[in-house]
Amino acid sequence: MRAALAGVAALSLALTGCGGADDEPSAGTGGRVTVFAAASLTETFTKLGKDYEAAHPGTKVVLNFAGSSALATQITQGAPADVFAAASPATMTTVTDAGDAAGTPAVLVRNQLVIAVPKGNPDRVAGLADLARPGVKVALCAEQVPCGTAARTALAAAGVRLTPATLEQDVKGALAKVKLGEVDAALVYRTDVRAAAELDAVEFPESARAVNDYPIVVLKHAGNPAGARAFVDHVRSDAGLAVLTAAGFQAPPNR
User: Fold this and answer.
1) pLDDT tens, N- to C-terminus, the chain (255 residues)
2) How many Å apart are CA 82 and CA 41, to the nearest integer?
């Protein structure tokens, strides 16, 4: 009898040690899934996260949006995350080279730059050359950020040299400068302007020289690897791709 009671007590303690009242279950595809994603994925991943939670009761998707380079640094320094979606292969390489990816990243979508201007385009910006006109204030992403790298590639392809009024740490920061009237234009992704009703997008041909692939991967030290894989499968599904392309992203070459 004593042995039986001891066994029950041990089992009770083991089950209690699995988590407190506020913890989510980690078995199967349930539990908490922490996703680090490029800032330009904010609107789409917010929707996809809610869709995933609806399809997987008991799941909580926690989203952390920022510049891809900053997120990659956080991951390699040990920040707890299950999934990483970057805005460029280069920033994903930071994570894979550090041995923090579980498997090979897959390209989720692609994105292209546009020139974001206030509604009605008051400065009559028609292309990259107009950004170098005297008096035109421009916001760019910092060079280490994927949108900053793409912007410099496009400007070089157009033979345009300009001094930005500000360098932002992610694409949302550059976009905000136009929204607030602090600059006249910004080089950002097509998807970001589409999500901003108060702005217009000016397309330019050199953007085709600076298309960014967005890779996604389950992380090696994921606390919920099954949930992470299920979330990646969800965003890469036909339904997930439909959400992304409706926002202006392009399907990857293999889709």
Assistant:
1) 344 434 433 333 333 333 333 333 334 567 999 999 999 999 999 999 999 999 999 999 999 999 999 999 999 999 999 999 999 999 999 999 999 999 999 999 999 999 999 999 999 999 999 999 999 999 999 999 999 999 999 999 999 999 999 999 999 999 999 999 999 999 999 999 999 999 999 999 999 999 999 999 999 999 999 999 999 999 999 999 999 999 999 999 877
2) 16
**Distance in angstroms (rounded) separating the CA atoms of residues 215 and 220:** 15
CA angle 245, 235, 232 (to 5 degrees): 150
What whole-number distance in Å separates Cα of residue 86 and Cα of residue 38? Answer: 5
* Euclidean distance between CA atoms 108 and 214, whole angstroms: 6
